[in-house]
Amino acid sequence: MNPASRRSLTAILSALPAEQHGLLEQLQGARKQTVAGRDFWLGDLHGQHVALGLSRIGKVSATLTAAVLIGHLGASRIVFTGVAGGLAPGVKVGDVVVAHDFIQHDLDASPLFPRYEVPLYGRSRFPCDPTLTALLTQAAGRALAGSNQVVSPLLAGAQVHCGLIASGDRFVSSANESKHLQAALQDAGHTALAVEMEGAAVAQVCADYGVAFAAMRTISDRADDTAHIDFPTFVAEVASRYAQRIMDELVRSLPEPA
Fold this sequence. Notes:
Layout lengths: L2 H6 E6 L8 H4 L1 E8 L2 E8 L2 E7 L4 H13 L3 E12 L9 E9 L20 E3 L2 H22 L8 E8 L7 H13 L4 E5 L2 H11 L2 E10 L9 H23 L5
Parallel strand pairs: 1-4, 1-5, 5-10, 6-8, 8-9
Antiparallel strand pairs: 2-3, 3-4, 5-9, 6-7, 6-10
Helix pairs in contact: 3-6, 4-7
């Protein structure tokens, strides 16, 4: 891939196909490219060259997908959209959390390194790109302002939050586990708004490559004993519609391709 293409490709990632529903249909001149057993769809969206792909579930799969997007397809920015469980008080179902940074809540290399610190990096949190994150936060605000009643009257008043998101290779689905996770993170000085399974891995890959990264998560549950209820329905009827509207707003606001 030539340098010009490398500078102008925006990758939109999700873990599940349903989380990208509607985006592929909007892609003009869509063509499929398969790398490392992963299918990517490349085309134009509102004048931007875009790649759509699935990270799959978990940190290892997300790491490989991000590396392929950057190393093979030349993505210059990656945006992640999907769902998460709410952790912090006030983060409710239907809200959107835009990541400021990420931490791996299941990483513990102590006593060689402090708990949560990524060995040989000297830090536990990986920040998102501030400019791209600001654009994503603004796009989410605009999209929610005009879509809550359309998606579901029950989501009226949904808010956009920005802060730390925790990632780990397990689905947090009980109130006891959620409480323990929050307490452990807070004891180490980290207050996470939401929990999911991929973002920290993508953030670390993007940091290594020097590629801009931003992520948003629609809160599908409170990461407690109700976490399994109507999850597929929520993704199909709420999260995917949010994603389509927010990504549409974001791509329109990106600088003109180089």
